[in-house]
Each structure stands twice: as C-alpha cells, then as structure tokens.
Amino acid sequence: MWLSLFRSISLLALFALAGCSKPPLYTQESYVFGTRVEVSVYGEPQARAQRVTAHVLGIFDRMHHQLHAWEPGTLSQMNAVFRASPERADITPEMAAIIRDATRYSEQSGGSFNPAIGNLIHLWGFQSDQFQAKLPDPAAIAALVAANPQMRDIVISGKQFYSDNPAVRLDLGGYAKGYALDVAAAYLHSQGIRNALINIGGNIMALGQHGDRPWRVGIQHPRKPGPVATLELRDGEAIGTSGDYQRYFEVNGKRYCHIIDPRTGWPAQGVEAVTVLIPPAPHSGTLSDVASKPLFIAGVKGWRRAAQQMGVAEAMLIDSDGRVHLTPAMQKRLNFDAL
C-alpha cells in the first residue's frame, strides 16, 4: 500500500511566467517516500523561497525514515513490538497521534482502509523496491485474512503501546504522503508563505495561487502518457489518486496491483484509478491520501457509497474498461477540453 510510488497526478508544464516583470516561481525537488517530490513557492525572494523549500524537504526526509514500511526506522521498530505481543514499548506523542488518526479513518471506511495489513502487503511482495511477478500461496493469504489484523488492535496506554493481535504489521503507505502534505502546509503558513504548491508523487496541496491564476494540475491517465483531465486547485485544496498502473505485476495476462482488499487478501480488481478532491480543512492532505483507497476497493458498484462514507463529494473513478465515472461535484471541476 506504499502509494508513494504512485505518481498519479503530474504537474503539467503550466508554470511558465508570462513576463519578466512577474514574481518568480522557485521549485526544489527531491526523492523521498519512494517517489519524486516538488515544492514550489511563488512570489517570494529567491533566498527566502530556497530556505523554506529546503526545510520542507528536510521534513519529508525525516518522515521517510520514520514512516517507511520496510526500511529500518520508527515503523519497523513498532512492528517488531507487535510481533512480540503483548510486549510493550514507548511511543512518541507524534506517532501516537498518527496511530489514533489512522485508526479513526479505518473505522470510518469500515475497514477497507486498513494500515494494519502490512503482512499481506509483504506477502504479495509489495514491501520492496523491486518485486517479482509471482502469486502468493492462497492458503497463506487466507491465514492472514483469518488473523484479522485491525487498527483497533493497537493499544496506546499512557506513553506506551502494544498490540492485542500479533498479526498486526503497520504499513502507512496510504497515509504518510497525505500527512506530510498537512505538516508541510502548516510549516509554510507559519513562515508567512501564501502561495505554494506541494507535490508528493501526485498527492498535491495548493496554497494561494500561481500569480493571477489558480494552481493548475493534470490528473494522470492510467493507460496513456499525459493527463486525462486538468484541474484548477483553490487555496487549501488537496487532491490524491490511487491507481493500478505503476506498482503492479502481471501473471497470465492479469494485473495485480498493490492496493489490497483487506476482506479477501487479494489486490482490488475492476478499477484503473480513483481521484479525490478534498476542500480546505485541517487534515485535507491526509484525507486526500486515505480516501481514494476505500473507493478503489469498493469498485464500480460501491464507490459512490464509499465516497459518502468518507465524506468525499468530489471524486472520479476510471474502471477497467477505461470508462470515466464522476460525482456531480467533480464533473463541474474537471476540464477535459484543454488537453
């Protein structure tokens, strides 16, 4: 579920300045969360823009080591504690808040967003930078599903944590990028930065505008180069996509992507991509990352209900036949004609 490898929304080449008299656009790039990230600041002196963007990339680097699902770090240390259940260990206030927040989203989704299924993701080979086109043993899948690891199995007591279920293995790949968007946006606001765009492998948040117009992004087509549509982001909005087109393998002509249905233990089928647009809110970045997964897993028949369950009014689903499905609110926002 480490969706950071998904570059599902691409920044289009739409940042060109109309004239030399306009304020500059300053952009720094890095590679964290297993994907390329970009932080762009508009209308600030270069030295100031360079300082704040470098600090944001430093925040991302720290989070990468803290929240990575399989490299040594905070999360791997926590997973070692879960395996030794009922062993206890200390937890930082930040990680405790993350666990509580992810648990809340998991309950809201009815369990389809479930960061506790890291063992299933590992079994499928997706907790690796490189993976093989090989199906796991169905009996092993069934055993992990029967173990039923849930976020509510994680107990936080004072400054310590433990798990009631040794099958819990955290993978925050469907949460971390969105959470990082919120942290970065809060820092930029604290520094008085009014106009910026933060792009973490396709999870994007806009602050202010790009000069005299909104920030404009493209939603990546799941089967063709380039975008399927463009969108103008308003101040504080965040957008995120889950897709089957980057982190996947094929066996006998069938595609298996990294988005695992916790109910079956198998990759979700029937959907190529889901995009959600989240209005300005304290945790809009996090929700933009989290909410696309339950919609993807629910599929064509259940995605609208899943959107309502997650409180998402603006969403798009592209099914496995390439058909585009839109909520009425999302249809009003997307531009399919400017491509």
Question: What descriptive keywords fit this protein?
Answer:
339 residues, alpha+beta, T-fold, 2 domains, 8-stranded antiparallel beta sheet, 3-stranded antiparallel beta sheet, 9 helices, globular, disordered N terminus
What's the arrangement of secondary structure elements?
Layout lengths: L8 E2 L14 E8 L2 E8 L3 H22 L6 H10 L5 E2 L2 H16 L9 H6 L14 H10 L6 E4 L2 E4 L12 H15 L5 E5 L2 E5 L7 E6 L6 E7 L4 E6 L4 E4 L2 E4 L13 E8 L5 H7 L1 H18 L4 E6 L4 E3 L1 H6 L6
Antiparallel strand pairs: 1-9, 2-3, 3-7, 4-6, 5-6, 7-8, 8-11, 9-10, 11-14, 12-13, 14-15, 15-16
Helix pairs in contact: 1-6, 6-7
Describe the fold and architecture.
The protein has two domains: 3-65 and 183-333, Roll (T-fold); 74-163, Orthogonal Bundle (T-fold), CATH 1.10.3980. It has helices at 46-67, 74-83, 93-108, 118-123, 138-147, 176-190, 284-290, 292-309, 328-333, and strands spanning 9-10, 25-32, 35-42, 89-90, 154-157, 160-163, 196-200, 203-207, 215-220, 227-233, 238-243, 248-251, 254-257, 271-278, 314-319, 324-326. It is of the alpha+beta class. It has an eight-stranded antiparallel β-sheet. Strands 1-9-10 form a three-stranded antiparallel β-sheet, with no helix packed on it. A three-stranded antiparallel β-sheet has the order 4-6-5.
Mean of residue pLDDT values: 92
The count of DSSP E runs of length 2 or more, i.e. the number of strands, is 16
> What's the main sheet like?
8 strands, antiparallel
Give the CA-CA distance, first to last residue.
31 Å
Total number of domains: 2
Helical residue percent band: 25-40%
Do you know the CATH topology of the largest domain? T-fold
By DSSP (H or I, 4+ residues per run), the number of helices equals: 9
> Which value, in Å, is the CA radius of gyration?
20 Å
CATH homologous superfamily descriptor of the largest domain: ApbE-like domains
Spell out the helices and strands N to C: EEEHHEHHHEEHEEEEEEEEHHEEH
Please mark out the parts with pLDDT under 50 across 5 or more consecutive residues, or reply none. Answer: 1-21
**Strand order within the widest beta sheet:** 2-3-7-8-11-14-15-16
Shape: globular
* CATH top level class name of the largest domain: Alpha Beta
Q: How much of the residues is beta strand, in percent?
A: 15-25%
* Category by helix and strand content: alpha+beta
Using the 3D structure, state the CATH architecture of the largest domain. Roll
